[in-house]
Amino acid sequence: MELNRDCDSGVNENEYRSQQQLKSHSTDKKSDAVNYSNEKEILQRIEDLLTDIIKKKTELQLDTFFNHLNDEHESYYNYGLGLFYLKQNDKKRSLKHLLFSYDQFKATDKYVSAAIACSKSIEQNPKNAELHRRMAEMHHQYGAYKKSLDSYLEAIEIYKQQREWTKIKNLCNIAESIDSNNPLICEMYGYAYKNTAGKKPEAISYYEKAKQIYLNCGQKKDAERCNKIMNEIMSSSRVQELDISYFTSYKRDNINTVAISDGIPVDEWINSNHTSSNVLKLAESDDMLLDYDIYKVDRSICLTLERTNGSYRQSYSKLEDFFLNLFFEMLSLRQESFNDSNKSFNYDEYYTVKSEFLEFRQIINQALGQAYMNQDSSSIGTIYTTPALSLLKKLLKSIDPDLNEVQLEYIEQAKHIAVPGSALFYLELFTQLKRKDIILKLQRYTSDYGYNEISGLIDIPVLLLKPWDHQLEAFKAWKNNRSRGIVEMATATGKTVVGFMAIENLVNTNQKNRKIIVRIIASSTAILNQWRRELIEKMGLMADPKLDYTSSIICKGAHINFQTVQLVMKRPESYACDLLIVDEVHHFAAESFRNALKVPTPRKMGLSATIEGKTKLDYLAKYLGPIIYRFDLESAIKADILPKFEWKLNVVYLSVTEEEDFEQISKQILSLFNQVSKDYATIRKISKSEITITNLYHFVRLTEIARYKKIGLPDEWKALQAKLQERRWIIHRSQPKINKAIELASYYLELKKKIILFVMDINTCDLVASELEKKYSNVYVAHSRMKDANRSILYFKKAASGILIGAKMLDEGIDIPDAEVGINVSSTESKLQLVQRLGRVLRKKENKIPIFHHFIGLPSTGSYVNYEDNIKFMEELSNIQDIALHLGVETEMNYETDQLLDVHNSAETMVHETNFGDKVGTLYLGNILKQFKEKEVHQTILRRLGLFDPDKKISDEEWRQIVREAFGIKDELYLNVPGYWWVLVIGDRNAKKISKLLKSRC
């Protein structure tokens, strides 16, 4: 069907783009701007050059091509790479780089170049609605309304074939704002509503509007067609209107049952669950309330509870009351520290928190859903800090800037229990926060500001850690020197955090919201990749952490770019910015690199561990400013920032209170998983692809997507989800068996040592103390129920020897006295919390190296769920190995039984033999391997591996030494290569297999 263009549809046929000055990259040093035709010429020149080179098929010519691209701006470089991979028939890489260039062209107002890059992408993927939507948005932004409308209609047509009714309505809404009298848009709107249950009136209204426009234009056939569709809609029955293949919750044989089922009486449902655990009841009622929220948007969903007088409101209001009462009953039981008058709720406060909780939950979940949907689909899962978790951390920071990173990490710990946004997630978060003032502020702040204000935090950079004193001093010194100068800090003392503070300050003081450019340059791509990852993680930025340094980060109008010195030094005037950060600045004193420091910018910061030689320093000071702050290795050791210690890992069985019930839950999970893994229809609906569920991580990932897309789940999926949450909750509330820790503490007390013992909760504190007090008098306990906890700590501080036993209280910034031995029996999912605990005890005393014992608890054989527990175990070991590498210490493994050693070996074998693709547990293998791509690092590792006997198993310590040597880091210095230990395990600890993995992926 074609619309008669003579009809006045509200579109100005000659309006192609608004007249505005476009900034562009300079290809001529005499000019700072390029007109539209020159933009096309640059792109055409790149394409012609590539075509000519491929014809000649010479590597030398190809090198020339890449050298030419290096001379161009990064956006042209990505465009050229996109064309190169397209010629190689590598569509995936081609699309990736073309979209990079599109984003960069668009960000720098190169309208024509962006349009061409997007057009090239569409040529490869003509059925990709998302690409057409991007093209439409770009045309719309630059005033090319006719082209924008055409692209929106292309995207809508594709979504129509995919039956994406909600997306059609969203795009129609935008298209209607461009041309409210376009009958095609009205028809598409009507078509989407026609296929949405309960929306017949809206569908008829839009078809009627389309009909009238066609009549006004004299297009009677099209008007008659619209009239016919309206008659069909009005004559169809409710059952005919519903499309059974698109039901999102339950599969039933009879359509009539689906359409009119009254469901279960709410009282019957509540009473039928009297034997279930509170965790299971909370998880199930939470899911039912989520279904009710979905039902308000999509009436085709089938709800569990019955209607009353034709409405679900009464049943679900009663369920809400049940849910709230259960939630706060569990919270009261969990919040043992509420017995403390400083933290407990009085009646009015308790009532306020309870009454405001549902509104708080609704606003936060809406914002979390938006954050989740905005992230790249390939990064969905539990890798790094997701945008949803970053949003909550920023919210807490907004409420109380003095919160430390351990308290913010409570959000990460809650994530290990349940999906962010679920009731169990909030229950764990509130429990960990403890402080009533924070919980009250969190809910009140959320309600006062509402969804728009809260969701706006997603785009704001916030430093999600509390800087050390020396970092604050360094930043202050830099600001006082007119935002110029060099910060010299010893390795591993956090010099990058000073750079983060500069970025945060610049962006958040940009009151006019003008465009800001931050540029970070370094001599190594590995350093730039690490900067990008840590910026996303530690400042809560919306970006895909799997992408490399060539992908800019955009937040609140700021464009954070990462460039190598090799690129910038060729034409520094093309890289003007508002803030320049130069890492490892001592390299830039080399004559070949000096030119890079001439980048035009009002703010310059150099970062380095050490700068040797007056000549080097004089040259660097000329362009960056003098050294304005020093923090050397000696200062770091005095400040206890760089400790050395012995680290002993003790693997024991987990202590679970109701072992039989726990074992039964584990078996039910395996049974339910077998059913769910064969439900291909639901898998396709959620993932939009033909993927299969081969393990529980795939299942959890899909349920996260379903929650934020508001897709209802079948009964079996809900049951498995609830059982998994129940099991994780039990494990989280359990701890390694305490008897071995008591034996260990007794051993050190006999040796007259000073010991700190960390346990899970207050009851365990008292239990351990009562056991040790039977034999020893110097036993001290500190927890929040004690009125004289500080006095107990003081007595321990003055004692020559003894043991201090504590739980969460010891995490919260309390001044803990020195100790020689640390014993951690509390389960710790957070790397940060573990390092903090290490820092409490790692004090050198009389030249003796302190010792830290870390207990790892595993479920017993009858309760072990292979994939779930193996990956959790491997992740915990990987976290520990990361810290060991970073701090330059060795680890020693000890097992309670030989059977536990077998479990460890079996878990490593599973990781090696399973084809994970790019994802292993919560880490992406591709991202880990990128750290080894630099030629020198890569070659050093391969050379060292070549020296090993092919049949020999490489130990943790041997692999650690190989990695340290490859990165050129001596034993006394510190190195951060997240996830490096996975490479050893995936490679089966075999030199040949690891080499093969690195050669194929690096």
UniProtKB/TrEMBL annotation:
Residues 743-901 form the Helicase C-terminal domain. InterPro entries: ATP-dep_DNA_Helicase, Helicase/UvrB_N, Helicase_ATP-bd, Helicase_C-like, P-loop_NTPase, TPR-like_helical_dom_sf. GO terms for molecular function: ATP binding; catalytic activity, acting on DNA; DNA binding; helicase activity; hydrolase activity. Keywords: ATP-binding, Helicase, Hydrolase, Nucleotide-binding. Residues 1-33 are annotated as: Disordered. SUPFAM superfamilies: P-loop containing nucleoside triphosphate hydrolases (SSF52540), TPR-like (SSF48452). It holds the Pfam family ResIII. SMART domains: DEXDc, HELICc. Coiled coil: none annotated. Residues 476-629 form the Helicase ATP-binding domain. It comes from the Archaea. This is Type III restriction protein res subunit. It comes from Methanosalsum zhilinae (strain DSM 4017 / NBRC 107636 / OCM 62 / WeN5). The lineage of its organism: Archaea, Methanobacteriati, Methanobacteriota, Stenosarchaea group, Methanomicrobia.
